[in-house]
Amino acid sequence: MMNSPLTILEAAASSGFFNFQELLRQWRRLICVYTFKMSAFNQLL
Amino acid sequence: MNVIQNLKWRYATKAMNGQVVPQEKVDYILEAIQLTASSSGLQPYEVLVITDPEVKQKLRAVAWDQSQVTDASHVLVFAAWDQYTEERINKVFERSNKQRGLPNSATDAYRTRLIGMMGVKSAEENFHHAAKQAYIALGSALVAAAEQKVDSTPMEGFDNAAVDEILGLAEKGLKSVIVLPLGYRDETKDWLVNMKKVRTPKEELVTLV
Fold it and tell me: Which parts of the sequence belong to the Nitroreductase domain (chain B) (predicted)?
């Protein structure tokens, strides 16, 4: 069976190679910041 | 917690989880709005509290599809007077005099001067003056919400005319100024929640003269 990129990443993470949750968190953050203008248009910060 | 700690805690929440803000907390925030300062004590605005899901959905559609509008349990819409009129100003002063046991003549000079001052300005100028008063109320609401550990997202990003139409504000002589969803942060979806709060340094913001 072919391993998906996600499965490979999870396997690498479980071996302690890197923190999968942290990677996911950073990825989400990157996506959110990228879409910042649309998701938070003209708010008072 | 004190005001400074509460202000450090608050931020423009980017994702809300749908949890309902208890009514006593909403009432507390509304009371802070009611008690806040305004020019000549006129309080030239009204606050609409939106909880109807259908209305919230309509508002979201004209607010750049910002999710907080529907994920908040309560959406406050600050709507300022579209114009200062003699009738509106008189009503405020008459109420104040009545509750203080004063004759209306006690404030005649001040009231007449105020009406004269506003009367020479355009409706647009008067609306902007009224809108500035609504922003003072917004500031008080933000502080009160933070004290209650209620999250909020003050928004200017919406189609004012469309919001006015949805809420029938023109018929009341009002125009929408700002929208404030109240709810609770969804930490799993909110990218801003763990980011540093960045503000202008005090030495740039404050000048000692």
Answer: 7-184
